[in-house]
């Protein structure tokens, strides 16, 4: 960076951090810190909740991945990644049913009541791994606009961004997170519009919107993976699911549906950045937004960096607050070592500080941000039958474990390359991923229903014997 570029980028980062801290409200009680209520105990409003869900799920790594897939496969790649946002309405509807049918106050409460305490512990471990990954995968994207991995600017920007986000998260917890999400949503939409204003005139619109082919080896396999993971992927992300319990059921459902549809549109639109790169022969080099920004000049690169900072900030503050709730509230209750009374805000603050440090360690080691989505989504495929078919059982711990651990095992085998080649569907880059998710869904579903079927058969045999 030259002096002008450095002043612009570092200056915005500093201003962003200060403004977010000054504007974010301070929580005065645990109900506000952990549940997002105001000082009078009123829940989050519908539109604030909608904006929060919308922007907190548009991770920096997500828009980067969407653009990279647009560069690789055209609009098919963009549609594939944007389809993950359709899982938000799915999650909202399932949580609506859980709340209205079972009265559960959280997903942990629901799992404990239907599948036992061990099931909730396994679920808690899965979401903690997900939250841990969210820290480094978002700060690394921000650092990439200040330098390359290995350069001090890269790490300094990522850590400074972490400190700023941590500061206002400590100030207000979930209330602060939701409040700043509204601001970040408006900033995000404005600068995405500014980016499109630069890109669309540089291309033939029809070519921009039709580039790509719906073939398995041209990105369509990843689109099918996304559609399969709609029913499992959202449930292992407390950044999303925690927001399903902070307002009335119908208000929550409306917010989830609107936020999911808006997210789908926003992510697909941003994937056109990658399609622009594809049409104009711009080498993405693993970061299509940065490559396109550099090709269009300083203003475009700055716009891209603002989009990344706002999306990363909204996700990172939500990650900190979800970690605080998971470790300070949910796990102690699960271990039966806490009452229904919320712990002090200090406990949640300590959790945030620890994970702000530990969560960035993988960034220094170097990792692939796309794998943070696709692999973790595969490992939790066993959650789909649990949340889709819970109505078939009142109490069946084995149904959860046979489904959940089977999915986790398949995900691990995929990650280490031990799945047989015959499982692949098609011959594209994501052929094996598609095969594991398709066959895995069927196997996990069979595992879920097996105890119910055996119990019914045993009951019939007993009845026949008594007769």
Protein described:
This protein is mainly alpha-helical and 467 residues long. It has one domain: Sodium/glucose cotransporter (Up-down Bundle). Helix 8 crosses helix 9.
List the topology elements.
Elements: H1 3-23, H2 30-35, H3 46-56, H4 60-73, H5 75-82, H6 87-102, H7 107-115, H8 117-143, H9 152-199, H10 205-210, H11 220-229, H12 238-241, H13 249-279, H14 288-296, H15 298-334, H16 345-358, H17 361-365, H18 371-379, H19 383-388, H20 397-415, H21 431-466
Helix pairs in contact: 1-9, 1-15, 3-9, 3-13, 4-5, 4-13, 4-15, 5-11, 5-13, 6-13, 7-8, 8-9, 8-15, 9-13, 9-15, 9-16, 11-21, 13-14, 14-15, 15-16, 18-20, 20-21
- What structural category characterises the helix and strand content? mainly alpha
Number of domains: 1
Q: Residue share in helices?
A: over 70%
**What top-tier CATH class fits best?**
Mainly Alpha
Keywords, separated by commas or semicolons:
single chain; 467 residues; mainly alpha; Sodium/glucose cotransporter; 21 helices; 74% helix
What's this model, at a glance?
The chain crosses the membrane at residues 6-23, 72-95, 115-132, 152-170, 182-202, 214-235, 256-276, 296-316, 347-366, 372-392, 404-425, 431-454. The protein is mainly α and 467 residues long.
